[in-house]
TrEMBL record:
<keyword id="KW-0812">Transmembrane</keyword>
<dbReference type="InterPro" id="IPR005467">
    <property type="entry name" value="His_kinase_dom"/>
</dbReference>
<keyword id="KW-0418">Kinase</keyword>
<keyword id="KW-0597">Phosphoprotein</keyword>
<dbReference type="Pfam" id="PF00672">
    <property type="entry name" value="HAMP"/>
</dbReference>
<dbReference type="InterPro" id="IPR036890">
    <property type="entry name" value="HATPase_C_sf"/>
</dbReference>
<protein>
    <recommendedName>
        <fullName>histidine kinase</fullName>
        <ecNumber>2.7.13.3</ecNumber>
    </recommendedName>
</protein>
<dbReference type="InterPro" id="IPR050980">
    <property type="entry name" value="2C_sensor_his_kinase"/>
</dbReference>
<feature type="transmembrane region" description="Helical">
    <location>
        <begin position="162"/>
        <end position="182"/>
    </location>
</feature>
<dbReference type="Pfam" id="PF02518">
    <property type="entry name" value="HATPase_c"/>
</dbReference>
<keyword id="KW-0067">ATP-binding</keyword>
<keyword id="KW-0808">Transferase</keyword>
<feature type="domain" description="HAMP">
    <location>
        <begin position="179"/>
        <end position="233"/>
    </location>
</feature>
<dbReference type="InterPro" id="IPR003660">
    <property type="entry name" value="HAMP_dom"/>
</dbReference>
<feature type="domain" description="Histidine kinase">
    <location>
        <begin position="241"/>
        <end position="458"/>
    </location>
</feature>
<keyword id="KW-1133">Transmembrane helix</keyword>
<keyword id="KW-1003">Cell membrane</keyword>
Amino acid sequence: MQTPHKTRWYQSLTLRVLALFWFLLLGAAAAAFYTAYHYTQPTQPEPLAEDFERTLQPVFESALGAGLLQPGRLLVGEYRVLARYEHTALEPTFAPALHPDYRGYISDLLDQPEALQVPVGDKMLAGPFTVDNALLVVARPLTEQEISELIAQHERDWFPRVVWLSVAFSGVGALILGVWFVRPLRRLRNATREIAEGKAYPNLARLPNRRDELGELARTLAATAVELATSRDAQRRLLSDVSHELRSPLARSQIALDLLGDETETLRSSPHYRQIEKDIFRLGTIIDSILWLSRLENGLDEPIREEVKPMELFEEMKGDIGYAQADWQERLRLEGSDLPTLQTDPVLLRLVLENLIRNGFQYGPEQGIVTLTAKQVQSAGKACLKMDIRDQGPGVEPSKLEQLFEPFFRADPSRHHGAGVGLGLALCQRATRVLGGELEAQNHPEGGLIASLTVPLA
């Protein structure tokens, strides 16, 4: 069975869903934290600016008494008294119609040991100023420079905190949502792989009990697994029955034909007799190929791995091919030296190589050469043996190269009717997958078709 493609980390659905949830929560959390911080963070008092002392000191010195400096009175320019506190009073006196937000800041300023200033809204509050036995808090409008500095300070103060808090809280929330959303998908993925391995009852845990779309998908997947297993078992029984029902009449026909030939010697020399004998043999070969192909596709044949010396296998195969076709042995060229030992199934490997070599002779010219070249290569980080089988035929149209390994496909059905029905290369492809290798075909630049078989050394 082909090894499942492993999803790379940057292609993971888990990562994508996690990132999506994270970004959404990050934006919402950032907006919430910004709003909360901006409207709830109190402004801290700062040292008194020179303009307050320079402007108010002459006013305080020229005043006849603190009793004239009442809350709400405009002192000079835009400087106005907002609050007044006398030691004999229980609470400070505020300017008429003063907004409640200012009173808390004024109370904080009155508790300070020295005069400070604090921006509140569009005003700069300053105090406490001592005049006689009274404490005064004075305000003026904020200048444009102070407004700009205040905005910049707010950005410096709240932005890093909002970012880190947003990242932390949204990260935890995204992780929980991502795991909750992706976990059933991973369970479905693993169950699908189990079904591909032939299991009738994949491990779906409690997914079929869910009432949402994922639960419906899990129930459908479970039913499909049972149906596939039932169909696979029926197909295996059919293969066994077909093997018996087709081979038995063919065997009897072959025996009957041999007995008929023994009774009448002149019959063996008849072209009709030879044609029947040839057709019976060809039909048996086709049936064996179809059954073998089905067994490979259904995983009924597993490779039996053992040590194989490539050159010895090639020489043995060359001798067997020459036994059936003497001239093929002379026209088969073997190239390769110092080849490593393989750990593979020699029967499947030989099946593939023999089919490829026979195709080379059948589709090549009358006295064409077929060359088998072998060498060690690296493929997908593993040591492999690559075997190229090249013929001297006309090659295949580029548009049909990808179809060569499909069952019953023939690149040129009008030629070489004795070459088969198009199952040889399909068998080779399936057998190569069982061996864990790769098989591909391409036209050689100098002419002919070259089939490349690559199998791992171990």
